[in-house]
User: Which sequence fits this backbone?
């Protein structure tokens, strides 16, 4: 899993191999072949400001662009990874298969991969971002890669009911396994959630100001930031694809799905800690007056928090179509439906898909790295095709 300037040539070679027509070989030793020559690859930074003494810059985000020189889609994609992750998650899988970025390029999309500020090729400055934190290998085994080892049993402090269905991780999922070791080698330290939210929102807004309209694809922690990006640039964000976004609304999920305090208000504005534009307007988040469902919507699901009726609408996000994907075996499987329900109640056109609905079983939280990752990116591509066609089809219906 490679990212940053050093990996650019390798990424290009991988693209040549991934996109080559059947029956052709990889790019020759002399240089990229004809397919690779049709691929544009560049990188740059967005955002950032100098410190008062001029000795450092902070807030900048590293962006890697890859795409066909003649894209089939007018609107590109912006991919943003979650906590502890970098754009390496989208470049390749830890067992060496092409990543989502390459697959989206093969579909004809231009792809902008944006690291969170202080990640990847963007320097981490302690004085600007504060103390960082990372996750031990054992935690990632429990949450992402070997969750079947931690299904609920007597005496076990960890595990959620859906964990026993996890089957798509490409390896044993524990330290010492080559695939897990490659994944863990890609992990980085992260800034605190509050500062990260503003940093990512500012950097992504700067990116959209530079490139124009785009679809924003977020994962995990970045999901909550995606709502803020849509809020900040509703005229530039054509759609949001949220892969198991941070949630659920208002309060953290209770154990065993969550490890936060379910009695503490985690997202006072419903989807975020920070203000969102509601109609009627909200001057104090307490005005949202969250209420909890009297019963869960199904077995092994949490009870959702929502607004009382009549619900306020999300003034800016209601202009942006949303797709939320959740896997079968992730800890998100118990509560991501609450985020989708909240968005719908607030007037946001939202498609909520559990991967088994599209024939993809056994996935965990890191679906973009798992064995069937190409099938999932193909579904996302199909959904995006429908969003792209929708305005044309709507105009055609009006003419009829």
Assistant:
């Amino acid at each position: 899993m490679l990212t940053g300037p050093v990996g650019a040539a390798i990424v290009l070679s991988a693209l040549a191999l991934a996109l080559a027509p059947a029956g052709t070989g990889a790019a020759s030793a002399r240089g990229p072949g004809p397919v690779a020559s049709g691929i544009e690859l560049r990188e740059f930074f967005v955002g950032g400001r100098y410190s008062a003494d001029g000795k450092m810059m902070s807030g900048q985000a590293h962006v890697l662009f890859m795409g066909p020189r003649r894209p089939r889609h007018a609107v590109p994609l912006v991919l943003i990874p979650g906590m502890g992750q970098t754009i390496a998650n989208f470049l390749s899988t830890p067992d060496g298969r092409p990543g989502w970025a390459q697959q989206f390029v093969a579909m004809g999309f231009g792809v902008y991969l944006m690291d969170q500020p202080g990640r990847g090729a963007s320097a981490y400055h302690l004085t600007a971002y504060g103390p960082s934190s990372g996750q031990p290998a054992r935690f990632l085994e429990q949450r992402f890669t070997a969750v079947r080892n931690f299904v609920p049993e007597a005496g076990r402090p960890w595990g959620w009911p859906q964990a026993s269905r996890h089957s798509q991780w490409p390896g044993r999922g524990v330290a010492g396994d080559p695939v897990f070791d490659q994944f863990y080698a890609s992990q980085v330290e992260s800034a605190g959630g509050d500062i990260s939210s503003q940093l990512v929102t500012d950097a992504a807004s700067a990116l959209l100001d530079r490139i124009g309209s785009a679809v924003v694809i977020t994962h995990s922690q970045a999901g909550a930031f995606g709502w803020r990006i849509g809020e900040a640039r509703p005229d530039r964000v054509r759609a949001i694809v949220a892969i198991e976004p941070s949630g659920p609304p208002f309060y953290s999920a209770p154990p065993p799905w969550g490890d936060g305090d379910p009695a503490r208000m985690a997202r006072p504005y419903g989807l975020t800690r920070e203000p969102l534009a509601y109609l009627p307007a909200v001057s104090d988040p307490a005005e949202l007056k969250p209420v909890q469902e009297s019963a869960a919507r199904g077995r092994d699901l949490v009870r959702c928090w929502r607004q009382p009726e009549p619900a306020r609408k999300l003034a800016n996000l209601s202009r942006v179509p949303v797709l939320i994907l959740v896997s079968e075996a992730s800890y998100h499987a118990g509560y991501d439906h609450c985020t989708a329900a909240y968005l719908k109640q607030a007037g946001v056109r939202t498609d909520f898909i559990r991967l088994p609905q599209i024939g993809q079983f056994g996935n965990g939280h890191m679906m973009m790295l798992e064995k069937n990752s190409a099938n999932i990116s193909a579904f996302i591509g199909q959904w995006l095709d429908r969003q792209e066609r929708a305005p044309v089809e709507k105009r055609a219906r009006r003419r009829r």
User: Anything to note?
Assistant: The mean pLDDT is 88. The domain at 45-399 is CATH 3.40.50.1820 (Rossmann fold). The first helix runs from residue 8 to 19. The longest strand covers residues 39-46.
